[in-house]
Design a protein that fits this description.
With 479 residues, this protein is an alpha/beta fold. It has two domains: 269 residues, Aldehyde Dehydrogenase, Chain A, domain 1 (3-Layer(aba) Sandwich), CATH 3.40.605.10; 191 residues, Aldehyde Dehydrogenase, Chain A, domain 2, CATH 3.40.309. Helices cover 40% and strands 24% of the residues. The chain contains 15 helices and 24 strands. The strands form seven sheets. The protein has a seven-stranded mixed sheet, sandwiched between helices. Helix 2 packs across helix 6. The longest helix is centred in the first third of the chain and has 25 residues. The N and C termini lie far apart (64 Å). The structure holds NADPH dihydro-nicotinamide-adenine-dinucleotide phosphate (NDP). NADPH dihydro-nicotinamide-adenine-dinucleotide phosphate binds next to helix 7 and helix 8. NADPH dihydro-nicotinamide-adenine-dinucleotide phosphate (NDP) binds next to helix 7 and helix 8. Belongs to the aldehyde dehydrogenase family. It holds the Pfam family Aldedh. Keywords: NAD, Oxidoreductase. This is Aminomuconate-semialdehyde/2-hydroxymuconate-6-semialdehyde dehydrogenase. One of its GO terms (molecular function) is oxidoreductase activity, acting on the aldehyde or oxo group of donors, NAD or NADP as acceptor.
Length: 479
């Protein structure tokens, strides 16, 4: 299968005619090729976006909204096809793609299709001075959207939908590792009547295609989700051009469990927050801190439940843990299991590659729990981004708060307790952009989404995203 770039409403080959192999993580085989796009392809995408901008930015909100909602409906109508593609490309269980990834991609378009009709700007009356200020929220122009491989269509559309809803035209790049659903999205956009050039999708490597988007002097804003090191590099390249930047980066999120929580609910949710999507979600609670009074019980129950999880082929309906996204990523995650051993961490379960019958070359790994000797060891400080969590006991609130905050990241935190005052105290002091109490990954798309410290700058979601993709202009009139 040859994936093509989607530029100016057409599916086209890369100008260089160079291609990159695309692997199926479930069996390690090459099953297609994607364009190895160059600067010239990014330039062509930019030219198409620039040409589409005057008309798209003047399209009525009702019309933009109608098209976005149509895209959402078409994604829902094609749920099976998209879910199969996502699962094949990424290695995630088909059940997850069907219930989370693709429905959420459809929701992103529906949500921003509706949100743009409710977005408003401010007016300030300067009392006593016979003047009124009103603020316009104007689209920026051509913007760049760059997304990672873990939730491919989900995160790709989380950027594109608000960008086009607010009247911008887009040059977008999905991860080279998971390009398939982004490619299929082009067909849906055509069918929904999105004008040519409003969305342009360029496939290729981060270091060349992605870099060309970030370096382009006339792509005025970059919305990026990915690793912290890449985010720092992008900030360095974009800053001298004064580009607007939204950076959603890595995490090393604490999951803090107090003895007074609803135990069964906590246990079931902690299995999910540890291993959903093979642990490859930036929001996974990869550092589990447990009240020492229930530590031994939790440890035994947690490990017993994990041993029941089925690691298997992504298309099997009873698979809980599919394949990791790529061979290099599998190797990286395995390295951390070795690091844990060197650091005197105790592997409570997992730690080994899994061989799935008939798919022996797939990238499967057992869900792994490491009892960590200290909160400062590498496996408790560095983002592993796989089916690997650490657990540690704590004795009191101050101690766990200190450990929770003692990382460079600050994306999300989860707290399990029924003590209201403790909830308020801890939520105030946790260094994170998102705190979940007695739940995990419950999302209301209106809420601000993003992290602090090395987890990024800026917020996505709701009107925050529409603010990012528009430029405020204040007009002061004296009368
Ligand atoms: P990367 O940072 O490697 O890549 C993210 C995207 O950036 C990919 O499309 C990549 O292309 C591209 N890219 C790489 N180098 C450059 C460059 N120099 N210029 C422009 N674009 C570039 O992250 P991963 O794909 O490995 O994703 C995993 C990371 O993403 C984890 O750290 C995770 O925590 C984070 N993440 C954060 C989320 C959040 O909301 N905060 C959500 C999900 C993930 P290519 O793949 O082709 O190299």
């Amino acid at each position: 299968m040859n994936i093509k770039n989607y530029i100016n409403g057409e599916f086209i080959k890369p100008t260089s005619n160079e291609w990159i192999d695309n692997y199926n993580p479930s069996n390690g085989e090459v099953y297609g090729q994607i364009p190895n796009s160059s600067k010239a392809d990014v330039e062509n995408a930019y030219i198409a976006a620039k040409a589409a901008f005057p008309s798209w930015s003047q399209t009525t909100l009702e019309e933009r909204s109608r098209i976005l909602i149509k895209i959402s409906e078409l994604l829902e109508a094609n749920l099976e096809r998209f879910a199969e593609a996502e699962s094949k490309d990424n290695g995630k269980p088909i059940s997850l793609a069907k219930t989370v990834d693709i429905p959420r991609a459809a929701s992103n378009f529906r949500f921003f299709g509706n949100a743009i009709t409710q977005f408003a700007s401010e007016s300030h009356e300067s009392a006593g001075e016979n003047a009124i200020n009103y603020t316009l929220r104007q689209p920026i122009g051509v913007v760049g959207c760059i997304s990672p491989w873990n939730l491919p269509l989900y995160l790709f559309t989380w950027k594109i939908a608000p960008a086009i809803a607010s009247g911008n035209c887009v040059v977008a790049k999905p991860s080279e590792v998971t390009p398939l659903t982004a490619y299929l999205l082009g067909e849906i956009c055509d069918e929904a009547g999105l004008p040519k050039g409003v969305l342009n999708i360029v496939h290729g490597l981060g270091t060349t295609t992605g870099q060309a988007i970030v370096e382009h002097p006339d792509i005025k804003a970059i919305s990026f989700t990915g690793g912290t090191a890449t985010g720092a590099h992008i900030a360095k390249v974009a800053a001298p051009m004064f580009k607007k930047l939204s950076l959603e980066l890595g995490g090393k999120n604490p999951n803090i469990i107090f003895a007074d929580c609803d135990y069964d609910d906590m246990l079931n949710t902690t299995i999910r927050s540890s291993f959903a999507n093979q642990g490859q979600i930036c929001l996974c609670g990869s550092r589990i801190f447990v009240d020492s009074s229930i530590y031994e019980k939790f440890k035994a129950d947690f490990v017993e439940k994990i041993k029941q999880l089925k690691v298997g082929h992504p298309s099997d309906s009873d698979t809980n843990i599919g394949a990791l996204v790529s061979k290099p990523h599998l190797e990286k995650v395995k390295t951390y299991i070795e690091v844990a051993k060197e650091e005197n961490g105790k592997i409570l379960c997992g730690g080994n590659k899994v061989t799935v019958k008939n798919y022996e070359n797939g990238y499967y790994l057992e869900p792994t729990v490491i009892e960590a000797p200290s909160d400062e060891c590498r496996v408790n400080q560095e983002e592993i981004f796989g089916p690997v969590v650490t657990i540690m006991p704590f004795d009191n609130e101050d101690e766990v708060l200190q450990m929770a905050n003692k990382v460079k990241y600050g994306l999300s935190a989860t707290l399990w307790t029924n003590d209201l005052k403790r909830t308020m105290r801890m939520s105030n002091q946790l260094q994170a952009g998102i705190v979940w109490v007695n739940t995990w990954m419950m999302r209301d798309l209106r809420t601000p989404f993003g992290g602090v410290k090395a987890s990024g700058v800026g917020r996505e979601g709701g009107f925050e995203a529409l603010r990012f993709f528009t430029e405020p202009k204040n007009i002061c009139i004296k009368y």
